[in-house]
Design a protein that fits this description.
alpha/beta; 9-stranded mixed β-sheet; 42% helix
């Protein structure tokens, strides 16, 4: 039987924005502690926010107030390995995170939801929609990254090649001194350089943003999670890649992409549009990899009408 989620009673009024937004809780899944939060009227339709790589639910700091005001009960979930959730020494990939998200909807939210995912969270949202369609009404991704979209992956590989790939991936990931590299990055200007690469506008000096990424990386188990993710994502079967998932998706899909995204260029969005011509693709000029955080007002101007359309259509 699933353990009942623990909700932390606020010592002060619940924050409507900032990296500490919402009423926080802990939910246990498969023996792992998962951090989550919620903001809004519980009687409103649920919207689940899924963060990107190395981030947490706090990265939606500039969006939750507007989404709640628009009539959504906004949930944020920290994926296993990130944020305030446990950082286990397990292989982590979008299949596991999709199962985590679907179980969260079933056990905590207790009804289907619209999923909104940033970067890695977009891939997780897509995966959850395909693997657990009864719990996902629609998906919005900003953007949707996956190497499979730009590199051909063979449908079938000889067993010897799969064994060799597993051996090489495990060897490389074990040799990398992540226990030294992760804390070093979290405590030096290397983190600032990494964050700036995800934004088109200057973010150096944004202490709140830096804390959001630095706190999980400074935990002693952070290197375990990064190694587990590196192995898990590299060894996924073809059926768990974005190209294969897009072919199976039946729910509505919205893509919002920054045209100045240096990490996942706009050309990837055009490749996705060629795979699914009916999807809705919205572009934001002069915006980088984090449109929800860099240009929240412009982002919400694109997202909210789409969400309203879902409600009107009864999707």
């Amino acid at each position: 039987m699933a353990q009942a989620p623990v909700v932390t009673a606020p010592a002060q009024p619940v924050a409507g924005d900032g990296i500490d937004w919402g009423l926080h809780g802990t939910w246990h899944w498969r023996g792992l502690a998962c951090h989550w939060r919620v903001l809004g009227d519980p009687s409103d339709p649920p919207l689940l926010l899924l963060h990107g790589f190395a981030a947490s639910s706090g990265h939606w700091r500039h969006n939750v107030a507007g989404l709640a005001a628009a009539g959504w009960c906004v949930y944020g979930l920290d994926l296993i390995g990130f944020g305030g959730s446990d950082q286990p020494a397990l292989h982590l990939d979008n299949r596991l995170w999709a199962r985590q998200s679907a179980a969260f909807l079933q056990q905590v939210v207790q009804q289907p939801a619209v999923l909104l995912g940033h970067s890695l969270g977009g891939l997780v949202a897509l995966s959850a929609a395909v693997f657990s369609p009864e719990w996902v009404r629609a998906v919005a991704a900003l953007p949707l990254p996956d190497p499979s979209l730009v590199m051909a992956i063979p449908r079938r590989r000889p067993p010897w090649r799969r064994r060799l790939q597993r051996l090489v991936v495990h060897l490389l990931c074990r040799l990398l001194p992540l226990e030294l590299l992760v804390p070093l990055i979290a405590r030096t200007p290397l983190l600032d350089l990494g964050l700036q690469s995800a934004y088109n506008q200057p973010v150096l000096g944004d202490g709140e943003l830096r804390r959001l990424f630095a706190r999980p990386a400074r935990r002693p188990t952070a290197a375990w999670a990064l190694r587990g993710m590196s192995i898990g994502m590299a060894l996924r079967p073809r059926g768990a890649t974005a190209e294969a998932l897009l072919a199976r998706l039946v729910q509505p899909l919205l893509l919002i992409w920054g045209e100045a995204d240096r990490l996942v260029p706009i050309e990837v969005a055009e490749l996705i549009a060629s795979l699914r011509p009916e999807l809705r693709l919205e572009r934001l000029a002069g915006v980088g990899h984090c449109p929800h955080d860099e240009a929240p007002e412009a982002f919400e101007a694109l997202l909210l009408p789409w969400l309203e359309g879902l409600q009107e259509a009864g999707t």
